[in-house]
Amino acid sequence: MKKEKKDQFVIACLEKEADAGVVLPMARHCAEKLGKGLFVLNVSKDGNNNWIKNFGLPYIGLKGDWKTAVDGLPTALGGVLAITAVDDRAPRTSVTHPATMLRTFRDCKIAYMAVTGDAEKTSTENISTSHFPISTFITLDHRRESKEKLIWASYMVRFFGSRLTVATPAYSDGGFREKLGNNLLFMQKMYRTLDVGYTTESIPMANFKHPDMVVATETELLKPGDSLLIAMTTDRRDRDLGDLVAGPAELRLMKRCRVPILFLNQRDDLYVLCD
């Protein structure tokens, strides 16, 4: 075991050596911008992970299962952000398969970034010179939201120099519009205090569509290589029949979205606005 002498880290989660080309450029970039340490993490059932020494980075190789390691990221490993490759062509036994990744990270208490699709073509040089993400997107709708989502969006503006766009549904329902207005009011107060600039984008959509899916699949807002989407995962207590049949929204999102997604799990202590 070998680790930098810092107490907070961006963690590059590599299931196999081939994932490094996707994950390490993003992890290096995020660690530099956030001013955090960086190390490579691999977990294997047989402990055969000597290859993680090949990258010239601090590393931790564990014998066991990924779920246990991920649950310990903020405490045992000092993680503030985990970055993992996601590949919908991978076998279900692989932690990079979207469904398996979501099960593995479903109790994770830190942010985790799924790098997929066109992000595979982004080299270390392109990331460092393009100030990725050039554009960061979040959605706000009528549902309860997390303060942590707004905080991470502010990090992208303050530390990465990103442009923040807040996409909001153009509701026809008056009750939904009122609750959305409450969420926007809280965000305005928070960002005024932090001196964070942003623009808003109205997206036409049915009342019960998922706004992240609308942004990813029904608009041209997200640009591969330039954009980052920050999304909350579905509260397991709020899943309905549609989620059981089609899978949670974040699973469908990963299969359709072609830019990196920064996921945050729902946490009761971070809800700031009402249903």
Secondary-structure blueprint:
Elements: E1 9-13, H1 20-34, E2 37-44, E3 59-63, H2 66-71, E4 79-85, H3 98-105, E5 111-115, H4 124-130, E6 135-139, H5 147-158, E7 163-169, H6 174-194, E8 199-203, H7 211-217, E9 227-232, H8 241-246, H9 249-256, E10 261-264
Q: Can you walk me through this structure?
A:
It is a single chain. By secondary structure, the chain is an alpha/beta fold. The chain contains 9 helices and 10 strands. Helices cover 33% and strands 21% of the residues. Strand 6 (135-139), helix 5 (147-158) and strand 7 (163-169) form a beta-alpha-beta unit. Helix 1 (20-34) runs parallel beside helix 4 and helix 7 packs parallel to helix 9.
Protein traits:
single chain, 275 residues, alpha/beta, 9 helices, 10 strands
Briefly summarize what is shown.
This protein is of the alpha/beta class and about 280 residues long.
Q: Percent of residues in helical segments?
A: 25-40%
Structural classification = alpha/beta
Number of strands: 10
What is the terminal separation in angstroms?
Answer: 46 Å
- Please state the CA-atom Rg, rounded to the nearest Å: 18 Å
